[in-house]
Design goal:
Oligomer: single chain
Strand order of the largest sheet: 3-6-2-7-1-9-8
CATH topology: Protocatechuate 4,5-dioxygenase, Chain B
Protein name: Class III extradiol dioxygenase subunit B-like domain-containing protein
Order of helices and strands: EHHEEEEHEHEHHHHEE
CATH architecture: 3-Layer(aba) Sandwich
Shape: globular
CATH superfamily: LigB-like
Low-confidence stretches: 84-104
Number of domains: 1
Largest sheet: 7 strands, mixed
Distance between the termini: 12 Å
Radius of gyration: 16 Å
Number of strands: 9
Number of helices: 8
Strand content: 15-25%
Length: about 250
């Protein structure tokens, strides 16, 4: 049963050490993320699942204590997902279609590493066990919803931390250059998050999202499936496009 959710963007620039001199520019975004995670903590979930986009090798589940690193972004900083390292390496089997779970220890994908940093920054501590799920952009909308339903149907009171960027085409200097369709796409996502509208998230156009380089489409549609039937109220806490990328922060409770 899904009892709460937070949606946050996943740029490594959220980590001040990575952002370096530009760190103060994103302080309002970091604060909004901490507030959204605080709402989830206040709901007292029994399990928290961090869902974010991932490359093929990183898809599937990641156990509590799984490590992540920002060395690829020029910073010798490591994080762990929700607490101490797991005694046994590897990950639990992934929900069918969410991606392969590989043997042996794996680093968290960047999106989940940012999620781990946000949880630590927000003081999550031992509030509830945490696990991660990396999903891929090719995962079809219907399968995303099925994965979300499976997560919500799992044991205990479940909450999600959904790591999801919007379009990357909002300005001429954006990673994907300017696309006139990007603002409308992001506005639709923001409205859906503000009203906790699972049907609107489920209806996001997969092809358009791909063309707009919206890395959060699949995680958002996992949220759509998990939230079906839950009576949750949404609050949009941040909706801006610094660096030409749509970033949203929302809480559902």
């Amino acid at each position: 049963m899904l009892i709460a959710a937070a949606v946050c963007p996943c740029p490594p620039l959220l980590v001040p050490e990575v952002a370096a001199g530009a760190a103060p520019e994103l302080d309002p975004l970091r604060s909004a993320c901490a507030d959204a995670i605080g709402v989830v903590a206040a709901a007292r979930p029994e399990r928290l699942i961090v869902v974010g986009p991932a490359d093929p090798a990183d898809r599937g589940t990641h156990p509590q204590g799984a490590g992540g690193s920002f060395r690829g972004f020029g910073v010798d900083l490591q994080v762990r997902l929700g607490g101490p390292a797991a005694e046994v390496g590897g990950s639990a089997p992934a929900p069918d279609g969410a991606g392969p779970a590989s043997a042996g220890k794996r680093l968290l994908p960047p999106s989940l590493a940012v999620g781990a940093w946000l949880l630590e920054h927000a003081g999550w501590g031992g509030t509830a066990p945490v696990e991660g799920l990396g999903v891929g952009e090719p995962l079809a909308a219907e399968r995303c919803k099925e994965v979300g339903r499976e997560l919500a149907a799992g044991p205990g009171r479940v909450a999600l931390l959904v790591m999801a960027d919007g379009s990357a085409c909002r300005t001429l200097k954006a990673p994907g250059y300017l696309d006139e369709r990007a603002a409308a796409f992001d506005a639709a996502v923001a409205r859906a998050l503000e009203s906790a509208d699972t049907a609107a998230l489920a209806a996001l156009d997969e092809e358009l999202a791909r063309e707009l380089k919206a890395a959060g489409r699949a995680p958002l549609q996992v949220l759509a499936g998990a939230g079906e039937g839950a009576v949750l109220k949404g609050e949009l806490r941040y909706d801006e496009a610094p660096y030409g990328v749509g970033y949203f922060v929302a809480s559902w409770s």
